[in-house]
Amino acid sequence: MNAPTEMNCLAYRRAKLADPQRISAEARAHEAGCDACRLFARRIDAQEARIARVLDVPVPEGLDERILLAVSGRRQMPWRAWAVAASVVLSIGLGVSVWQGHGRYDAPRFAIEHVMHEPESFSTARLADPDQFRAVLAHFGGELTHSLGHVRYMKLCPGPEGTGWHVVLDTDKGMVSLFLIPGDKVHVPQTGTMQGYRALAEPAGRGHIAIVAENDAAVAAMAAAVRDNVRWKI
User: Do residue 158 and residue 213 come from a single domain?
Assistant: First the structure.
């Protein structure tokens, strides 16, 4: 018999995302005593209300993947057109925006929060295609010269100044999240830790990258791999 899951922030947010209107008594007790999770709950509830008001047409399953496949096949599509297509996908599948609502943009912290809000990224195969990753990276301003690891998950995500990407790779140091975030918010490397995760953010391509993993060695290894195996053209 499995031991009950400790109701910490990560467990609460998983439960809230899984079924926003029906969470356990333990989850409600945690929410009542945690300011951060109470704010998170308000955002989720507000988002649910917006979806209920706006979305009255069912979206065919896999539509976002088909849009991305069509876009990534056009190798010479300009970044503006790529961003428009990405925005269409985001408007269809509204994500949890963990990048807004804070007074100062803390790139490592927000990358970690995004990982915490998207636990399925570690257990789901989604757009797990190295050619698609290569195309996404090219539109972000990088040419991949050698593999960074096995791509297992890619998903559009909201950033502070536009739509970015959350990519999960299997490496010899474990699973690592790599974010490609457009904009002009990060000018020097930044590091951070939170809830057992480590993160590094640094300028790259058309904005900045953020690397998140559960140990410093995995973050450092991915940072080195990016420096050695991605040629930035911006």
Answer: yes
pLDDT tier at 78, thresholds 50, 70, 90:
low
Domain that holds residue 33: 9-54
- Distance between CA 180 and CA 157 in Å, rounded? 9
Q: Packing angle between helix 35-54 and helix 9-18, nearest 10 degrees?
A: 10
Model confidence pLDDT, tens digit, residues 181-203: 988 889 999 999 999 999 999 99
Six token digits for residue 219: 């973050």
pLDDT higher than 70, residue 96: no
Same domain, 134 and 213: yes
Distances (CA, A) of 177 to 62, 167, 204: 22, 6, 16
Residue 118 in any domain: the answer is yes
Q: What is the pTM of this model?
A: 0.63
CB 165 within 8 A of CB 136: yes
Domain count for the chain, please give it: 2
